[in-house]
Design goal:
The chain is an alpha/beta fold. The chain has one domain (2-249): Rossmann fold (3-Layer(aba) Sandwich). It is 38% helix and 17% strand. It is built from eight helices and ten strands. The chain has a seven-stranded parallel sheet. Strands 4-8-7 form a three-stranded antiparallel sheet, covered by helices on one side. Helix 2 (40-53) links the parallel strand 2 (31-34) and strand 3. It starts with a strand and ends with a helix.
């Protein structure tokens, strides 16, 4: 695994943004998987800023998000479809038909997961998958304990996220909120993966994921086995691994 460490802030966002831009410039009809959340919002803004200043053809790009919330309105501002559409697709002129996302409401999420995978494969499979990492090591909604051979499935939210989504969507207490997510097997089938993490709160899990044993207890640790994976970290997120590397020098 390649590890790239940046300064805090804009350098981190721009470095990660250029991995997405380079993929598009190198292959106009790239299939790119994105991730939404606190880490990637600044990255997406940096991509859109570069595109605005130096326009290039993104009309043939296919994008999707690694996961999607379930049983919330699709227009919910915190929904993954809405976020990638607003942050990446509209600013870059990526047409609506090139956004592959499952619905947020369905009577058969198992079938929706199958269709989600099928539509990605019909476009040629994943050229680049951008991943965030949860503080417990989760990738998408693949929480600790998820088997590495898992394909697309309906998982659960961690408690803080569910509480926030339920509050923001005013969902009733009996509404079954969750997340339809590509499984770890799907992620590992990506041709290239970029893992992004910033902030001191990610330092411990980054150390465990990149330097610890490969285990389902830390889902992101499986990325150590991928043949073309880069971790882009700011200095705060990299603090734990930097400490280990310094100790190994002595």
């Amino acid at each position: 695994m390649k590890i790239t460490i940046t300064n805090i802030g804009q350098e981190f966002n721009t470095t990660a943004a250029w991995r997405i831009i380079a993929q598009i410039l190198g292959k106009k009809n790239s299939v790119i998987g994105l991730s939404t959340g606190r880490t990637t919002g600044g990255i997406h803004a940096a991509v859109a800023d570069v595109y605005k200043k130096f326009p290039f053809d993104a009309s043939q790009v296919t994008v999707f998000n690694l996961d999607e919330l379930t049983n919330v309105p699709r227009e919910y501002f915190g929904g993954c479809y809405t976020m990638i559409r607003n942050e990446i697709c509209i600013p870059m002129g990526i047409p609506e038909e090139n956004i592959i996302m499952p619905p947020t409401i369905s009577d058969n999420f198992e079938e929706e997961g199958r269709l989600f995978e099928e539509r990605i494969m019909q476009r040629g499979g994943i050229d680049l998958q951008v991943l965030g990492i949860g503080e417990n090591g989760h990738l998408g909604f693949n929480q600790p304990g998820t088997p590495f051979e898992r394909t697309t499935w309906l998982s659960v939210m961690d408690t803080p996220l569910e509480e926030r989504v339920r509050r923001e969507t005013q969902s009733p207490k009996d509404a079954n909120l969750g997340g339809l997510t590509l499984g770890i097997k799907n992620i590992m089938q990506s041709r290239k993966i970029v893992l992004v993490a910033n902030g001191a709160r990610k330092a411990d899990i980054i150390k465990a994921a990149l330097l610890g044993p490969v285990t389902v207890d830390v889902p992101a640790s499986v990325l150590q086995l991928h043949p073309d994976c880069e971790a882009i970290l700011d200095v705060e997120a990299a603090a734990g691994i930097l400490l280990v590397l310094q100790q190994n020098k002595h």
